[in-house]
Design a protein that fits this description.
Layout: H1 6-21, H2 32-41, H3 44-78, H4 87-95
């Protein structure tokens, strides 16, 4: 029913289970299971395209989060809220 790796499937099942436990429906009143059924009804080529689109969007989201994290770290470093050093420096600091 789900197109993806076993890890993806487990994550999606967990996500769906969480929505189901809370009695939630996805946006616009469609349940997660209904979305999966709709995907199953698509031709194989469209399902493969859908997978690529979703993967690309997830990659872009991760890229955006990383860029924001880097900007925040640079800002904190600039304002003295962060410092640089080696792993040994960090371990020594934690041991204090």
């Amino acid at each position: 029913m789900f197109l993806g790796t076993q890890t993806d499937s487990a994550a999606m099942d967990a996500s769906y289970g969480e929505c189901e436990k809370r009695g939630r429906r996805m946006s616009k009143g469609i349940t997660f299971d209904e979305v999966l059924d709709m995907i199953d009804s698509l031709p194989a080529e469209q399902r493969e395209s859908l997978i690529e689109i979703v993967k690309s969007r997830l990659i872009e989201e991760r890229r955006d989060r990383l860029a924001k994290s880097i900007k925040k770290a640079r800002r904190e470093y600039k304002h003295g809220k962060a410092s640089r050093g080696t792993v040994d420096d960090l371990m020594n600091e934690l041991a204090k």
